[in-house]
Amino acid sequence: MHFIQPLQAFLQTKHIVEFSSIQQAVFKVWPRQNVVGIAETGSGKTFAYLLPALNQIDVTLNKPQAVVFVPTKELKWQILTILNDIKASFTGLKVSENFNSNAHLIVSLIGKDIILHETIKYVVFDEVDMFLEDSSQAEWINCVQLFQKHKPHFGFFSATLFNEQLQQIRKQVAPLTVVNQKKRAWKHSLVKHFLLNLNGQEPFAGLLALLNYHHNEQVLVFCSNAKSLKQLTSLLAHNQLSFKSLHGQLTPNERKHIFTSAANNTVRVLVVSDLLARGIDLPHFSVVISWDLPLVDSFYIHRSGRVARFNSWGNSYVFDLPHNQHKLTKFAHKGILFNSVHLERDGTLKFPQLKQSKQKPAVSSELKTAIKRIKAGYKKVKPNYKKRQKQQIAELFAKRKQRRSWKNF
């Protein structure tokens, strides 16, 4: 796809020289056709729909031309943040969360404040499977039918979209091109799953052991409901542990402040409800702990996907408890392999099936080219050349870890 100059400038600023597989596949059809995009969490679905839509924006026309619907405020704030970065290179581009503005692109929740504009030609539903749940399906159908009056092109994106949900979309929008880059809906190649055997001890003892084991990492702790979250945060506070919690009962300003702090790497332990399991980018977090299992099975995949983003490895922990066995059996049948971890009496963790060597990081073609360039510079053998070469390559990997990989949005 050929991008207009402002988008080329943005891509250059963010050092994006290649696109992920879902982006390349979607670029071939969107926004000329209605599309469904399915790919792993952290694979770059946001840019897959956002860049082509922005490529069609006419900034001389001060009217809404594209809209992105999202299921949570956190995801809305995240996309608006990305768009504000793009605006620095895209002179004249206006974005908003309100339909009563003259912004070119609107990012919004589904609700009563939707205003139909005949100039809107591109409509996206991110994390569309959430809109297809029983509690919100009727509202989603009404929204789709409202915009169909002016025949825009639709985009539907998610990490988990099953056949039944796909058929629901087909009933409303046709023709439809499906781009499926995720052949195994229940598995993520960069997530390691662990089942913690408590050996008769309390779950909170297991949680403390995990927090101690990962004391140098940022940790997300998921709770399935408000009661569970309240009980856990009370235990953490009683034990004088430092943490933040994010859930639907907070005010929008409170939620935004905590979310921003977590995204900016100033929160080590974040206790959250499942509202944060969808589409959110928290690049500094590498560990997920499910204090309890989600009510909707597929939400477990979205939970674990919070820490396997930007080609980074992530660890996801579940407690081996009697009331979890039914769901764990279903997860196993879906192909999720859990490594066994044991909580010792002294509070340490034993990983009998886990090799302690670090996983090799995924290497992009851009990084491979840079490594080849370093090696090519040492054609003549000089004293300590291997040591200097190794140090330069190590610095490359360190820089990659520090810099956010924008292409995976």
What are the salient characteristics of this protein?
Rossmann fold, alpha/beta, eight-stranded mixed sheet, 3 domains, seven-stranded parallel sheet, single chain, 409 residues, 17% strand
Describe this structure in words.
The chain is globular and about 65 Å long. It has an eight-stranded mixed sheet. The protein has a seven-stranded parallel sheet with strand order 3-4-2-5-6-1-7. It contains 14 helices and 15 strands. It has helices at residues 5-13, 21-27, 45-55, 73-87, 128-131, 137-147, 163-172, 203-213, 226-238, 252-263, 299-304, 325-333, 365-376, 385-402; strands at residues 35-38, 66-69, 95-96, 105-108, 122-126, 153-158, 177-180, 191-197, 218-223, 244-246, 269-273, 285-290, 314-319, 338-343, 349-350. The model has no long low-confidence stretch (mean pLDDT 86). It has 409 residues and is an alpha/beta fold. It has three domains: 5-180, 3-Layer(aba) Sandwich (Rossmann fold), CATH 3.40.50.300; 191-350, 3-Layer(aba) Sandwich (Rossmann fold); 371-401. Helix 10 (252-263) links the parallel strand 10 and strand 11. GO terms for molecular function: ATP binding; ATP hydrolysis activity; RNA binding; RNA helicase activity. Residues 190-349 form the Helicase C-terminal domain. This is Probable ATP-dependent RNA helicase MG308 homolog. Keywords: ATP-binding, Helicase, Hydrolase, Nucleotide-binding, RNA-binding. Pfam families: DEAD, Helicase_C.
